[in-house]
Amino acid sequence: MPFHLPTALRGTKPSPLTRLLSAIVLSALLASPALAHTWLEEMQVIGPNGTYIGDLGYSRGYTARTDPGFNGYSTKWQLPSPDTDIGRIRINESMFACHPAQRTANYTEEYPQLNVAPGSYVAMKYLENGHVTQPWIPAGKPDQSGTVWVFGTYDPSPDEKLTNVLAWTSDSTGGNGKGWLMAAQAYDDGRCHQLNQAPISINRQISFPNRIPGQPTSQIEQWCETDLYIPDDARVGSTLTTYWVWSWDTGMRTEGAFCGKDEYYTTCSDFQVIDGGDNLSKIAAMPMIHTLGQQDPQTQAVRDYKSRTALTTTPTVITNQSCTYGPSDVTTSSWPASLTVMTTMPSSLPSPAAPGPMPTYQAGAPQHGGRPGGNGSQHGGTGPRPGHGNAFPTSALAGSAATASPLAASSLAPASPTTQADTVSFITITIYTDSATTTQSSASSTGTISAAMAVVSDGGVISEMDQKVRRRHGRDLFGQ
Asked: Are 126 and 188 a contacting pair, CB within 8 Å?
């Protein structure tokens, strides 16, 4: 079960044990591989004034996080697959573009297709799961958290391959010519953030708070979006199929991945193209009735939704599985030369008022993580790993790794930007253990240690752990 090690104010002189603990925690954080998991949650048309309008739409075969049977793999499609493509670092021509549950237009009354109109924009929304706010996990990942491409076709195939789709071009002449590239945008939309204690998240929690209607002091995760333009000549009365493809590759000459590694995630969806009326009046008149149980309360698209760009505008498909790089060629390490990006707040925080107490936000079934196996592998458990997924109440995750909201109701609630800055000047370490795999010997514990990274604004230090917390545990994990 998780237990928390609160700390005192910055400036406290650390003991030798504290220095050792801080080193263990930081190296555990930096060495832990990221378990990516992103898919489209919902889509909605953006009105002329930048607000979301009309009803919501969903991907093929969508399963909500609150639905029975949801397990994190229900709509996640990663290529190469870590389960069936073991040892492969590049995609190949045999890999399907869509998840098995998304190879046909299998919509339900609860999760329908989205209605769009020629000349409209669509917000394709997803959760960043730490890939934006903690971009250093793991090493070697691209700037802006990678690139999202959206491809469209009027001629979808249930056995469409990813390499075919990636060959489509904006002028419809690439690859097999069945579709075209509709958009290329950064995964990071400049606003979205998971609730965690990394500097990027703290900044965005203040600059772009996401409030629950009627709860002005609430704060929940800010969803990301890809903003897709529907062509003026889109065929009214037709079905437009889209392939949302996120590339989060690892660059070459990275420690542990000398030759680099492909990492693609896809979501396949269909739009019904209709006559939207003047200024999209017909779409705006559609009531928003197909909402999620944990609906994103955001009502406004990102400011630059009409001009989003990406560092890479055309996919590059690499098929060579080998390279000549080795350990001596590493230029990107899992232990950066400076920890500044992870531990230092900006010199000045944003000006908008800081959010109030953050409610516990139950975001449905936990994501990824799971119990570490005796051989170091990950079992398909139910606990989110630090920095990925949303916050869950500890009581709901007894016996599994969990991470708490960084400013939960039991924490100090900032009342102003000044108080916010003071609050994030502390550092909070959370040690995660699994009671099923942790040995009973305090001197030789084998429990996996990981950390929820904290924020230190100006050289603060980790202080001694709270004695009350230590007394609640029969055995001292660190043998003290």
From this structure: no
Specify the long-range contacts of residues 305-309, CB closer than 8 Å, at least 24 apart: 305/46, 305/50, 305/121, 305/123, 305/225, 305/227, 306/121, 306/227, 306/229, 308/183, 308/185, 308/186, 308/189, 308/226, 308/227, 309/184, 309/185, 309/186
Residue 282 CB burial class (10 angstroms; 0-12, 13-18, ≥19): middle
Residue 311 has pLDDT above 90, yes or no: yes
> Average pLDDT of 139-167?
97
365-368 contacts: CB < 8 A, separation 24 or more? 365/65, 365/66, 365/70, 365/71, 365/72, 366/72, 366/392, 366/397, 366/400, 366/402, 367/37, 367/72, 367/129, 368/35, 368/37, 368/72
CB within 8 A of 169, min separation 6: which ones? 175, 180, 181, 314
Q: Which tokens is 427 given? A: 């550092």
**Cα atoms found within 13 Å of the Cα of residue 233, Cβ hemisphere only:** 2
Residue 37 pLDDT exceeds 90 = no
Q: How confident is the model at residue 322 (pLDDT cuts 50, 70, 90)?
A: confident
Which helix or strand (DSSP H or E) is residue 113 part of? none
426 closest CA partner among 3, 5, 116, 1:
5
Is 15 a residue whose pLDDT tops 70? no
Which token pair is 211? 């409030």
Q: Are strands 264-273 and 78-79 parallel, antiparallel or unpaired?
A: antiparallel
CA distances from 215 to 191, 353, 359, 478 (A): 21, 15, 10, 42
Among 459, 458, 455, 460, CA closest to 203: 455
Q: Kindly report the length of the chain.
A: 480
pTM, two decimals, is 0.68
Q: Give the pLDDT confidence score for residue 71 in this predicted structure.
A: 87
- Under a CB-based contact definition with an 8 Å cutoff, are residues 283 and 277 in contact? yes
Strands 239-247 and 264-273: antiparallel
Calculate mean pLDDT across residues 28-50. 74
**Are 302 and 51 a contacting pair, CB within 8 Å?**
no
Residues 27, 184: Cα–Cα separation, whole Å: 35
Segments of 178-263 assigned E as strands: 179-186, 224-229, 239-247
Residue 260 scores a pLDDT above 80: yes
Query: Residue 338: its pLDDT value, please?
Result: 40
452, 386 contact by CB (below 8 A): yes
Judge whether 83 and 241 are in contact, CB under 8 Å: no
Q: Cα 262–267–270 angle (5° rounding)?
A: 145
> Average per-residue pLDDT in the chain?
73
